[in-house]
Amino acid sequence: MSQDRPIRLSPAGVMTMPALSSVHWGVGCIVEIADVLDGHDVGNALIVTNKSLRRSPLLDQLRTACRGRVQKVVDIPAHVPRSAIDTLAHDLKTSATDVGAVISFGGGSTIDGAKALLATIGTPVLHLSVPTNLSGAELSSGYGVTEIHDGAGFKHSHRDPAVSPTVVFYDPQMTATTPPRLWAASGVKALDHAVEGLLDVQPLPVVSPLAYDGVHRLATSLESSVANLQARVDTQLAAWQCYFAPANVRYGLSHRLGHILGGTFGLPHGLTSAITLAPVVRATARTRSEKIRAIATALGADAGSADPADAAADRLDDLVSALGLPRHLRTAGLRDPRDLTHIAQLLRQHYPEAIAALGHGDEALTSFLEGLW
User: Closest Cα to residue 133, out of 329, 269, 324, 257?
Assistant: First the structure.
């Protein structure tokens, strides 16, 4: 860390490390996946992906890299519907396929879907992940599943280290068909991981210094990586720094809003961070002056300003605008302003601790959500 972003680490504590055994990165590193399967004595593999990638030539490249071990390919819809997981789990349990490894190939919903599938099956299986965006789901033992209650969907969070990926491949070639808008939005999601994580926990050894550096590297490289495939590996590594050991970090209002806007209203997760992160920083970070000043510095904002929370939020707003991403719910797919009442109700019901930072009373929450509209 540079001297202008000092970190006073917590004097005592415990860290939970990721389940990763190895991370492979670089252009073309996907060819190493067969050696990994050999090393774990895997004969048959299942690829979990999405409909778009299932039709992509990249799937053929992944199959080729696995050298004939792929026995089946399945796809999981966005936001991981419980019904889809249960159907796939039943099909696998009743089939004659003996799966030794699951390879998740896609973004956050795909990787979370693979975790949910493994948890539902209940059989220990090696989980390898080939991420195609910057969502960071491959680094976490947590996953979200959307379930229907009283006719409405809600994304419930689960955590199970046994289903977390243990081997990850950051190969920018495997992101070639990721739409630029999705890539950019997932990068803002990666920033969301670091910014909220840094704000809401005591500074941790290893994790906090990496997160500050990840914020700096993402803020300076994300825009250029959207159209430059060769540059994407640097952005992938920066996103890894932002989310290095997520089990040790508590996330706040921006993430909780993302769960609701995604699971209940169907908005893409990355887009939700583009809309919520800067306003959450502006509304909640002033009381954490030392942390937000360091975050503003990492973002390249004027940390010496009278209000570093505003400076950091302004920098995030500028980045979102430069990436061409929406900054308001009404331009991201939410059609009815009356939905804000439902969002407020779900926040109060499921995440009261996340809205506490806004201040007391319903007026503070109502005003904040109206600002997002």
Answer: 269
The tokens for 157 are 């969070």
CA dist list (Å): 174 to 30, 36, 140: 8, 17, 20
Tell me the three-class secondary structure of 172-227, residue by residue. Answer: HHHHCCCCHHHHHHHHHHHHHHHHHHHHHCCCCCCHHHHHHHHHHHHHHHHHHHCC
Does residue 24 belong to any structural domain of this protein? Answer: no
Find the CATH number of the domain harbouring 237. Answer: 1.20.1090.10
Question: Residue 175: inside a domain, yes or no?
Answer: no
| Burial status of residue 167 (CB atoms within 10 A of its CB: 0-12, 13-18, 19 or more) | buried
Whole-model pTM: value is 0.93
Per-residue model confidence as pLDDT tens digits over 314-331 = 999 999 999 999 999 999
Query: Which pairing describes strands 167-170 and 22-25: parallel, antiparallel, or unpaired?
Result: parallel
Q: What is the pLDDT of residues 232-265, one digit of tens each?
A: 999 999 999 999 999 998 889 999 999 899 888 9
269-284 vs 362-372: helix axis angle to the nearest 10?
130
CA distance 117 to 110: 10
Cα R_g (the chain), whole angstroms? 20
- My answer on whether 65 and 155 are in the same domain is yes
The whole domain housing 107 covers: 29-170
The answer to whether the beta carbons of residues 214 and 194 sit under 8 Å apart is yes
Length of the chain equals: 373
- Structural domain includes residue 162: yes
